[in-house]
Backbone:
């Protein structure tokens, strides 16, 4: 039998059955009487066919009303009792088509059902609403696989290499696709950039740091045909490669070191996931495995600590700790965020558009959205030990003493005596809201401040881990005052106990922990949520993948493992294309598809579709090796072209879509800071580790809500670490990173803006970090023996990886001399520019060189990759 869905709704209606629409009637509508005589289902079916706009697999599956299936219709989707056999007046379906509710009516547009038609429906329902046996024989049929002719949903193919006329220009297969398009357009490629430009370009692109003078000199001295490839291989093998490319992934997964929202608490263990990403990229972990471990690392057979750390991907959601927030509501919002991020990161699709209704452009139904949602709906957040090398020894040695001292403190202060009754009453308060307002307030604070507290407090004492018990006890000690009299609190003197426990914890060499997830024992059922509302549940759904794409294999696997394998499957036409496109955009300023966050029907078509497919198939054919893709691109003649503007192409190809040259790209925010630290000699290049808080302008952290963020500056070498490691405080991000377009990391970002604002210039001139870098660069240059011209040459090598022109030397010499005269006229100024005494130069000379160094660090060329 043909499926019969919402028979009077236009197919474009977003929420189908219960979309609101005003009646606009002058009088209260009346319910027409039932039709006379027996009404068979065939008569109802005829009515459906007369008035129906069939919605196969779309709107009505969202609402859950399936009129071709008796059981499904009786459940009524989210409506509840849409059809009540024997009671048409009590059936919501009838009330809506009759317009008895002045705010809701079916259909919301177009012709209304006549009184006679409503009477037919009433009679059929009153007579038992009987369906043919065949329609009740089995569950509703599964969704048919959808077909799309959109380019992104077609299988990835390995195209043949095109023939080109200028064979001499071609260095690898990439160039054949680029050159074939250029020759078709009658355009010639640009000449190759100079060796110095290439050295700086590829160094910044692969490791995010300019080449050192020594590395540059060695490359320039190597005249062999393999010189450039050897440089590329050294850079790909560098541990800084993982740092450079981790930044892009952290944008995608919205990494942050704090919760966001009002309180924006710090996340002291968030960095452990960042470390996993760096290590995975440096080791060239196959991207399919990279995907599977993040999606399902905790449920893989024999799961390792590292694989569990990878699930920190799920923990990058924001956390709302505001009083009064419904915990279940926000758990829903976090799961929505996880579903949206999976769709954006791996599929390059705007799946989040289907949260409230079917996607308006792509073949993604609302039901399918919640099937993706279901993969992450049963997750519990858990922090696990994830020790780094060298941590276990001190931890194990100190543990017995720590535990004994802690037990002594808690026993002496009656904590063990009082905590059981508090736990019991907290559970009672949770189960009887409104009965004890003080305990309601205490439980609300408990839910917001202790992650997983609901789960822990309901565990029997013997089933709790030692850490769970510690977390619960610490919360009790901090918050018992909420439910007891002030005089008892003062008598207990737990303020002093809290200080003692904190001091004990600070002195204890605990191991690093990681923010991960695990499957909840609750086995939560997933539902479609009507109009995206957290508390408006529709039909139940099971984890499943998008039907516009090839199916996934679930047999013998955990659903999330099946999801991870499906995302990075050769049969999935999106993931490989999406990833190579994002890599390409970092090298050329724009992807072959210029909408990296949307490969759906609203996307821009690829400028070089065969090149996109060739790179994608190469990616998969070489075991999903990211480094193979990187090397293939940077070894091409297309990548090595000069970035000089082409006047003849300014009108014809203003966006360089044809790839007739390279592009000048303003460096990402982190790399601007890293380059300044590298050139000045201040950079502390250790790989990985905790986030740091370098010097920043005064008052920035005070902008946070209620002065809740404390920016305690890192000391020693840590304040000179790379920008990747700067603490990402979501509500008040580090100013230099924000000024130069680091995303706020609240949602997945598939590309960064490159703005140009006066604030950026002020940042480079006056920010304490850049002032300090200018001072250090001046010291470094003054250590070089020689005259002003030789020192300028050295400064240019450090900052720009080249020697200055005669005009540049002349201009900077004049600028230096002007600065000397200014400082001679203002005796107090040199000390402000250079606050330390130098053996190799006087105060005025050192201050003048600091001014020159600041000029170099502010050059457009310095913050630009040519």
Residues:
């Amino acid at each position: 039998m043909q499926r019969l869905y919402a028979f009077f709704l236009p197919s474009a209606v977003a929420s189908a059955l219960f979309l609101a629409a005003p009646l606009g009637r002058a009088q209260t509508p009346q319910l027409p009487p039932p039709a006379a005589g027996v009404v068979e289902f065939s008569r109802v079916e005829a009515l459906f066919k007369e008035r129906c706009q069939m919605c196969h697999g779309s709107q009505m599956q969202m609402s859950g009303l399936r009129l071709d299936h008796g059981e499904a219709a009786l459940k009524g989707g989210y409506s509840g009792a849409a059809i009540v056999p024997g009671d048409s007046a009590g059936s919501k379906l009838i009330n809506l088509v009759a317009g008895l509710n002045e705010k809701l009516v079916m259909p919301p547009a177009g012709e209304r059902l006549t009184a006679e038609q409503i009477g037919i429906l009433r009679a059929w329902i009153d007579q038992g609403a009987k369906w043919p046996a065949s329609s009740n024989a089995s569950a509703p049929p599964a969704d048919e696989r959808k077909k799309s002719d959109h380019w992104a949903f077609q299988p990835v193919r390995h195209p043949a290499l095109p023939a080109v006329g200028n064979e001499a220009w071609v260095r690898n297969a990439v160039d054949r696709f680029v050159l074939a398009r250029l020759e078709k357009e009658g355009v010639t490629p640009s000449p190759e950039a100079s060796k110095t430009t290439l050295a700086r370009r590829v160094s910044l692109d692969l490791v995010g740091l300019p080449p050192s003078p020594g590395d540059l000199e060695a490359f320039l001295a190597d005249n062999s045909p393999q010189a450039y490839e050897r440089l590329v291989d050294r850079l790909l093998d560098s541990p800084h490669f993982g740092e450079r490319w981790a930044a892009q992934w952290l944008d995608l997964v919205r990494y942050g070191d704090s919760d966001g929202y009002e309180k924006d608490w710090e996340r002291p263990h968030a960095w452990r996931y960042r470390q996993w990403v760096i290590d995975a990229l440096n080791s060239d972990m196959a991207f399919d495995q990279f995907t599977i471990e993040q999606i399902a690392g905790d449920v893989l057979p024999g799961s390792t600590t590292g694989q569990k750390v990878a699930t920190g991907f799920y923990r990058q959601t924001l956390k709302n700790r505001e009083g009064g927030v419904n915990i279940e509501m926000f758990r829903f919002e976090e799961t929505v965020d996880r579903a949206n991020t999976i769709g954006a990161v791996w599929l390059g699709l705007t799946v989040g558009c289907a949260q409230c209704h079917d996607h308006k452009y792509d073949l993604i139904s609302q039901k399918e959205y919640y099937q993706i949602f279901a993969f992450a709906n049963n997750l519990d957040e858990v922090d696990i030990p994830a020790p780094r090398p060298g941590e276990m020894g001190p931890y194990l040695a100190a543990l017995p003493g720590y535990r004994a001292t802690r037990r002594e403190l808690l026993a002496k202060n009656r904590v063990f005596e009082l905590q059981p009754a508090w736990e019991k009453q907290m559970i009672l308060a949770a189960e009887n809201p409104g009965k004890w307002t003080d305990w309601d307030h205490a439980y609300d604070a408990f839910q917001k401040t202790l992650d997983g507290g609901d789960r822990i407090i309901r565990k029997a004492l013997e089933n709790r881990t030692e850490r769970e018990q510690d977390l619960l006890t610490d919360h009790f000690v901090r918050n018992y005052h909420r439910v007891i009299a002030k005089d008892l609190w003062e008598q207990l003197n737990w303020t002093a106990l809290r200080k003692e426990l904190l001091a004990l914890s600070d002195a204890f060499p605990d191991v690093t922990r990681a923010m991960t997830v695990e499957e909840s024992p609750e086995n939560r059922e997933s539902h479609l949520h009507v109009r995206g509302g957290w508390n408006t549940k529709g039909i139940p759904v099971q984890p499943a993948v998008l039907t516009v794409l090839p199916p996934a294999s679930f047999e013998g696997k955990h659903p999330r493992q099946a999801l991870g394998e499906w995302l990075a499957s050769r049969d999935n036409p999106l993931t490989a294309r999406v990833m190579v496109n994002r890599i390409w955009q970092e090298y050329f300023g724009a992807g072959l598809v210029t909408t990296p966050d949307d490969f759906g029907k609203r996307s821009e078509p690829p400028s070089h579709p065969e090149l996109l497919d060739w790179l994608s198939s190469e990616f998969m054919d070489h075991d999903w090796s990211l480094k193979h893709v990187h090397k293939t691109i940077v070894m091409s003649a297309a990548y090595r072209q000069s970035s000089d503007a082409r006047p003849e192409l300014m009108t014809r190809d203003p966006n360089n879509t044809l790839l007739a040259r390279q592009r000048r790209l303003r460096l990402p925010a982190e790399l601007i800071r890293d380059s300044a630290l590298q050139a000045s000699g201040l950079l502390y290049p250790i790989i990985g580790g905790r986030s740091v808080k370098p010097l920043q302008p005064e008052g920035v952290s005070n902008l946070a809500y209620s002065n809740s963020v404390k920016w305690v500056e890192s000391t020693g070498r840590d304040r000179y670490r790379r920008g990747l490691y700067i603490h990402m405080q979501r509500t008040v991000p580090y100013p230099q990173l924000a000024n130069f377009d680091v995303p706020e990391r609240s949602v997945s970002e598939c590309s960064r803006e490159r703005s140009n604002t006066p604030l950026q210039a002020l940042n480079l001139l006056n920010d304490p970090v850049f002032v300090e870098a200018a001072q250090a660069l001046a010291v470094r240059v003054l250590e070089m023996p020689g005259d002003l011209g030789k020192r300028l040459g050295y400064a240019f090598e450090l900052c720009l990886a080249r020697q200055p022109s005669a005009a540049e030397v002349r201009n900077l010499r004049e600028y230096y001399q002007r600065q000397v005269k200014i400082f001679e006229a203002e005796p107090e100024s040199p000390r402000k520019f250079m606050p330390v005494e130098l053996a190799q130069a006087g105060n005025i000379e050192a201050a003048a060189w600091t001014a020159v160094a600041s000029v170099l660090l502010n050059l457009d060329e310095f913050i630009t990759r040519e």
Summary: The first strand starts at residue 379 and ends at 385. The longest helix spans residues 327-347.
